[in-house]
Specification:
Helix content: over 70%
Radius of gyration: 23 Å
Distance between the termini: 21 Å
Number of helices: 15
Largest sheet: none
Number of strands: 0
């Protein structure tokens, strides 16, 4: 951290100059226990409501399954995206991420729980994916004769079966979480070992750990992008078996970036009411994090709008269902709210802050 004498909100403490003295304890504050209990209560209530809705009717079951899949991807966004952002901080070495390391490490340690969350999807994915409901050529032919699928869907199911079939989907999911879990284990283990290093604070110790983290994180970011793209295709894009996109994985990656940054910023600001974050968080770090989050917001809206504009202007019959599904049946209101909440409001707030 660079030296300074800024308090939260940009106020100055003229009685203090030079580097700040860290608190005697850098442990997490006790308030986290209360936050965990509140989160557990919300989880329990939401689970009960979801189970009731799931058993209510067949249509309600389908809605709950899709909502569960969305919740699963949001959880994966924070677990996997937290891992990617942590590795990005190690590679870049930027001061912007020093305060985020502990929150990001906490996010990554939920990766195994997110992996377990996929198990219910496996047992019920025949209600979600056509490739799971019709896993063989014979099943596809039967579905086509019964008008359960269109000719285009039948041909696509047969063409994509090597990647999109129950066995392959399970294998890909296991590989994704096994590799990501290995990165999470090593980064968290090395973080504790670095803190306990007897030579901690010396230049040789700093260089040794820096190189170690950089070597793993550099290749780790590349591997993560590949695994995320694979997972996003299998878990989400294959809901529409005929759809394809060349930037699908990148859209998820950028979305994870601003979601993780938003949660991290909220976390450190809430923790700044208590030590040790109260001493460590300054206006400088807040500005850096806000500008980085704004960059992800702009990149996200650019990717989404660019894809819409290209598909709309191309007017290719195979592609236009992408935006037709997003503007009919009331989804136009959701799309408009997404534009306002995910771009307009963040843009205005970030511009006022800068």
């Amino acid at each position: 951290m660079s030296s300074g004498h800024e308090h939260n909100g940009g106020q100055h403490d003229h009685s203090h100059h030079g580097p700040r003295v860290l608190p005697a304890s850098l442990a997490a504050p006790e308030i986290l226990s209360a936050w965990r209990m509140r989160a557990l209560i919300v989880f329990a209530v939401a689970t009960v409501v979801s189970l009731v809705a799931f058993s209510w009717s067949h249509e309600g079951r389908n809605h709950i399954l899709r909502a569960y899949l969305l919740g699963y991807m949001i959880c994966f966004t924070f677990a996997g995206g937290g891992l990617a952002m942590l590795m990005l901080q190690y590679v870049s070495g930027g001061k912007w991420g020093l305060l985020l390391r502990r929150p990001l490490e906490a996010m990554t340690r939920t990766i195994w729980l997110v992996g377990l969350m996929f198990v219910p999807i496996i047992f019920l994915w025949k209600h979600l994916y056509q490739w799971a409901a019709f896993p063989t050529a014979g099943a596809v032919a039967q579905a086509l004769s019964n008008h359960a699928v269109s000719l285009e869907q039948a041909m696509t199911l047969n063409a994509k079966r090597a990647m999109l079939n129950p066995a392959a989907a399970i294998f890909q999911t296991v590989v994704i979480f096994a590799i990501l879990g290995t990165f999470v284990f090593l980064l968290n283990k090395w973080s504790l070992q670095r803190d306990a290093d007897p030579e901690r604070g010396t230049e040789p110790s700093f260089d040794r750990w820096r190189v170690k983290f950089e070597n793993l994180s550099g290749i780790g970011i590349l591997i993560y992008v590949i695994l995320l793209t694979d997972g996003a295709i299998v878990w989400i894009k294959s809901l529409d078996i005929t759809w394809y996109s060349s930037i699908w994985g990148l859209q998820f990656l950028v979305g994870q970036g601003y979601a993780v940054l938003a949660l991290s910023i909220l976390t450190v600001i809430l923790l700044s009411r208590f030590e040790p974050m109260k001493t460590m968080l300054r206006a400088t770090e807040q500005h850096d994090l806000g500008k980085l989050a704004f960059a992800f917001v702009m990149l996200n809206i650019y990717l989404c709008f660019a894809e819409f504009l290209i598909i709309w202007s191309g007017n290719v019959p195979d592609e236009i269902p992408w935006y037709l599904n997003r503007i009919h049946g009331g989804w136009w209101y959701v799309c408009s709210a997404d534009f306002i909440c995910h771009w307009l409001i963040p843009s205005v707030c970030c511009c006022r802050a800068t």
